[in-house]
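Fold this sequence, please.
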Amino acid sequence: MHRSPERPGGQLVIDSYLRNFGALLQWKYLLRPITRRMRKEALYRIIETVTPPLVPLASMLRRIAGRLGARLVPIVEYSSLGLPAELNVQWSILDTFDMYSPAHDHPQSLATVTRWFEEAGFENVQVRRGFNGVVGSGWRPVGHELPTLR
C-alpha cells in the first residue's frame, strides 16, 4: 500500500550519490568545478566533439580492466550493455553532458541519510547502498508534522 508523502502515514524514498573516497576521485567531481561554470551550449559542443573518439578507448579499457578501466577516460560509455555503436555514442554524449553540467550534485554517506530520516521523525527507516549510491526510505508517522524547510 502506497500512501501520499504529504499526508500522515506516507512513505518517503530518496536516492543520492554515495559520498566516499572513490566518489571524490571520479572525473565528474574533478572537472565539474570548471564545467558547471561554462555555458551549457559550449559545454555540450565540447562533449559532442570529444566523446565519440574516446568511446572506443573507454570500451577497450573496459574489456581489459572492467568498470574501473572504463572510468580511466573522462566520459560515460555503455559498451557493456551491447548497444549498437551509434547508440552507445549518443548515450555517451548525453550522459557525459549530464555528468558535467549540473550546478548541484551533493553525494551523501549512509550515516547522513539515516540521520536525516531520524531527525525528521520517520519510522521504519531503511538506508542502503543502491545502484547509484544511497537509497533511503521511511514512513511518516500518523499525526507527525514534518519540519519546514527554510
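The two ends are 31 Å apart (CA to CA). Residues 40-70 form the longest helix (31 residues).
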